[in-house]
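Morning run. Coffee first, then this:
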Amino acid sequence: MNKQFVKPGSIVRHIWSEEDMILFIFAGASAEFALHNSVDWLYFTGKLPKDPLGRMLSTVHYAKQIVFTSDEKARKTISYIRSIHSKVEESRHDKIPDWAYRDVLDMLIDYSIRSFEYIERPLKLDEKEEIVKVFCEVGLGMGLLNLPSNFETWEIARKNTLEKNFRISNYTHDLFKQYKNHLGCIRYLLLKQIQSVLLPQTLAKKLRLNSSKWIGAIIKFYKYCKYLHIESRLLSMLLPTQFKLN
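And here it is:
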């Protein structure tokens, strides 16, 4: 039997098998990408602003290839992702800074934790350690250095980067405009409300996101639907038909 990159029964597998949690993860990440100091790299090829939901699904596809496959196949996928970025660097005659890659890992770690805790329950420390370990292993596969060794060191580093690596720019406004164009007004409003309860306060303040009372009621109703195992019907209403995660 082939060794799995993420062991069966891992909290990471549980999180990334749940469609709602994946949506929450990318709701948070979509806000961070818009604020990040290296967001100009996402605009270089023009693919993200033209098709933000399609790029999201592509990222989900790669993430699942890593989380739910053998160690050998996962590492091949990680190498392939790194090679894609290398080609972009060659085209631009510049190098994506390592701290930008690390910040993307931070997004995946942070929103995996926040999404699970918001929808289900508080995570145990060993579960948080597992999440950090898995995504730092992805980072090592991409050749990154100075990655955290445990949840405590990751949490400290995360707080520091939130203070210095994010700001409002013209890209921020344009990317949110593209989100609205592709999602429509109602889904866009829901996206911003999810972001308002999910983002770290540092980033929520930069985006002037304020949660409304109705988002709490909607999430509570959703959790009840999930308890009854009918949540898939709600999710199918939230996503445009062409953008399904499974």
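The mean pLDDT is 89. Good start to the day.
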